[in-house]
Write a structure and sequence with these properties.
- By secondary structure, this protein is an all-alpha fold.
- It has a domain of 109 residues: Alpha Horseshoe (Serine Threonine Protein Phosphatase 5, Tetratricopeptide repeat).
- It contains 9 helices and no strands.
- Helix 2 packs antiparallel against helix 3 and helix 8 runs antiparallel to helix 9.
- It is elongated and about 85 Å long.
- The protein starts with a helix and ends in a 35-residue tail after the last helix.
Length: 211
């Protein structure tokens, strides 16, 4: 009996150690991928690791976001949008990053109305993130909604006074927006948007907030 009990205890301990080792491996893998700023090298091996992570943790919203970023970097925006959407469904209350990334993917496809909707939702969830306003401002410029874009850039600068791209785009918009006045009341030029440079959209997000 004593031998049987010892054998059972040994088996239980061995199983516990195996489970613990597996958990540590998964946590390390996820941490490594996230801290590396995405899928290092973006090779097939890397994407297979992310997919494996999703299979083991099908309710891990960050894993879907990570895979979405992989496909966005490859230009496969439809697949990326599907992954971002899955992340949003899994974790809707903390989905501002996922909405931001899906908005970026939509913008790359020229689907500006959908992109604006996503940035609006990201702002609703996290209203203190300057980059969300900045991105929405850029999309509004592309749609010709210049006043809305101006207000978005102003809000981005209010939240983050050192946000240089927002300041540059606000200055650009002031100079190219026909029949408007600068914030100090003076008249501005009438250059067309084609003759000026708009600073690019913010990057795809992996984790955390802020620009």
């Amino acid at each position: 009996m004593t031998h049987i009990k010892q054998t059972k205890i040994h088996n239980i301990l061995r199983s516990a150690l195996l489970i613990f080792a597996l958990a540590v491996t998964i946590i390390f893998l996820k941490s490594y991928i996230l801290k590396s700023g995405g899928v290092k090298g973006r090779t097939e091996m890397d994407i297979s690791k992310i997919t494996e992570l999703i299979k083991k943790h099908p309710n891990d919203s960050d894993a879907y976001n990570l895979r979405g970023n992989y496909y966005s970097k490859k230009g496969d925006y439809d697949i990326a949008i599907s992954d971002y959407t899955r992340a949003i469904v899994i974790n809707p209350k903390n989905a501002d990053i996922y909405h931001c990334n899906r908005g970026l993917a939509y913008s790359h496809q020229g689907e500006y109305s959908e992109a604006i909707s996503d940035f609006c939702r990201a702002i609703e969830i996290h209203p203190k993130d300057a980059e969300y306003y900045y991105n929405r401002g850029n999309i509004r410029v592309k749609k010709g909604e210049y006043e809305g874009a101006r207000l978005d850039y102003l809000k981005a600068i209010e939240i983050s006074p050192t946000y240089s791209n927002a300041s540059k785009n606000l200055s650009w918009l002031t100079q190219t927006y026909l029949n408007t006045k600068a914030t100090d009341g003076r008249s501005v030029g009438t250059r067309t948007p084609e003759n000026s440079e708009l600073q690019p959209m913010g990057p795809f997000r992996y984790s955390g907030n802020g620009n």
